[in-house]
Amino acid sequence: MNFLFVYEYFFSVALALGPVEIGLTLFAGLGFLLMFGYSSFKGGYQDLIETTLKNDELRREERKKNLK
Question: Could you list the residue range(s) of the whole structural domain that residue 13 is in?
């Protein structure tokens, strides 16, 4: 059974996708996975987590000072 046939069978019937739209969907999905994997590999998300935690701590301290 051909992969494109299976993909068309499950998705194009409900969404009325043609071969071009199926190709674009696969390309976009693959691009997303590659970029997500690359950013995870580089560790960019760690800076985001550290900044978020630091900002949360600062806001908690400000609230404590304002409540006193």
Answer: 3-67
